[in-house]
Structure formats: C-alpha cells, structure tokens
Design goal:
This protein is mostly helical. It contains seven helices and four strands, in the order αβααβββαααα. It is elongated. About 10% of the residues are buried.
C-alpha cells in the first residue's frame, strides 16, 4: 500500500489549539496544527501495534491538557500495568516511610517491594531506583546485580 493510500484509511479530527495547555500554546505547533490524524506506533514494552487515534489526541491535548509534544509509547494494557505498578510502589514507599523499623526484618514485604522495583525496570529502564534496590538486596542478604 502506498503512503497516500494509507492516509485514506486514517481518521482525521479537527484540532482546536485554543483549548491546549498554556505550555502547548507556546509551541510552534500552535500556529500550524489544524487537525489530528491517527498515528500508528509500536508499544516499546510488548511490541504490539497500536494507534494513537485522532479522537484520543483531541481528548489528550484539549481536555486533559497534556503537552502537544507527548507521544504514546505504551499500548493500553502496558500503560495500565505501569500505572498499577507506580501506585503499588508509592504504597510501599509510604509504608516504608512510616514503619521502617518494623519492616526492616519483614522478608515478605522486602521481597515484594524488590519484585515491584524489578518489574518497573521493564517500563522505565532509565528510572531505576538503584539505591532502593541495593538497600533491599542488603536487607534480604542477596547479591546485588550492580556490584
């Protein structure tokens, strides 16, 4: 299929840059973007073929006020899983902050937290919490992959 033929099958939705966030209104796109077009992409985690639909773009940029420079990189399933992991990690961080002395010897808690941090690497390998991972490995008396 040629490029022009592919474009015939894409959805197009009118853009209203006046509805964008303050930051997005300062972008060059503010003066030129008149429509959203379905944008195919590949989930970087699982490799699934996905589409950032024109309608999703309109909602993302005009209702949620996300930056116009934002691009999708995760499929819906991986995005949901990443947010669940973030919420779980936040809960573990919160418990650690308030119950550290009791949790230092709780192997179940420490192992679960380490597992969450290890799983998080799949979603954001550039955002590893090396210090926490090393601390948990030390408390669990395990060898560090960083040494």
């Amino acid at each position: 299929m040629t490029k022009p033929a592919q474009n015939l099958h894409r959805n197009i939705v009118a853009a209203d840059p006046e509805q964008w966030s303050k930051q997005s209104k300062q972008s060059v796109a503010f003066h030129f973007k008149r429509e959203y077009v379905d944008e195919p992409y590949k989930c970087y985690r699982c490799g699934a073929a996905c589409t950032f639909t024109a309608q999703d773009q309109k909602y993302t940029f005009e209702v949620k006020k996300a930056s116009i420079d934002q691009r999708r990189s995760l499929c819906a399933a991986c995005w949901t899983e990443s947010h669940q992991l973030q919420a779980a990690l936040s809960a573990y961080n919160g418990r650690w902050a308030t119950e550290k002395s009791a949790l230092r010897s709780n192997r179940e808690f420490l192992s679960e937290w380490l597992d969450l941090l290890t799983r998080w690497k799949q979603f954001a390998p550039y955002k590893q919490d090396v210090a926490k991972i090393s601390m948990l490995l030390g408390l669990l008396k395990l060898d560090s992959p960083f040494s």
